[in-house]
Amino acid sequence: MSETVRLVCPAGRKHVELWAGYALVALGVVAVVVDPSHWANLTLGVLLLLTGVALAVHGHMIKSPVLEVSDGEFRYERGRYIVRVPFHDIGSYHVLPGRIRSLGLCDTTGRPKRFPSLQNRRTSRAYLPLTGMTSPAKVESFMAMAGIPPRKRSLTS
Fold it and tell me: DSSP of the chain, one letter per residue?
């Protein structure tokens, strides 16, 4: 595969924190502008402004998972955690249902691949966590564009 196929999973918490932070900043500015001579408005405005800035900064720091296939390699990236798998080692995939969806990859014999834990624990996991807002249909179309068959349709299972 010579083209790069990429899927950025939407993070609902990130969007909520960004919008809420920006709204609190705007509300803080409005509170100060309404009556800048009264100490209660100034205090409320500064508190809203500081809370909004903190919330927006935290929202910008949330990393969304990214799936990418390029140059014969499948890559999963979430912040500093990066998993690279040679494309020819992947036989099939499956999307685990649940509140927070996950992507499981299988090798060419149909066995689940194991990945190191996200928090550098000793355990390993057989899936890569996505986000709750990630649609299984989007993951399926991404994998179809990448050329990876679903587990139920793989040749070896």
Answer: --S-EEEEPP-HHHHHHHHHHHHHHHHHHHHHHH-TTSHHHHHHHHHHHHHHHHHHHHHHHPPPPEEEEETTEEEEEETTEEEEEEGGG--EEEEEPSSS-EEEEE-TTSPBP-EE-TT--S-EESSEE--TT--HHHHHHHHHHHT--BGGG-S--
